[in-house]
């Protein structure tokens, strides 16, 4: 274990450091700060067009990317927010049906 694990989020929209304590690992810090990043992005949907989240911990990436039956609550919440962000983007790109039927070509 580390003396004090922590991670940070740095962007043009927000800056946050997350010291998570001396009894947690860097993995825990990466998962926590990933949750912080995606929830901050969700609250600022109109402020950006694209977002990339870099995660240093390979095991945190695998945990978030893969389906686990026994995942933690915070990982479940990260996945839920990511799905909402993806759905928001898909809805934003949706073309209204009346535009398609009025004869406009795209």
TrEMBL record:
Name of the protein: Uncharacterized protein
Highest taxon of source: Eukaryota
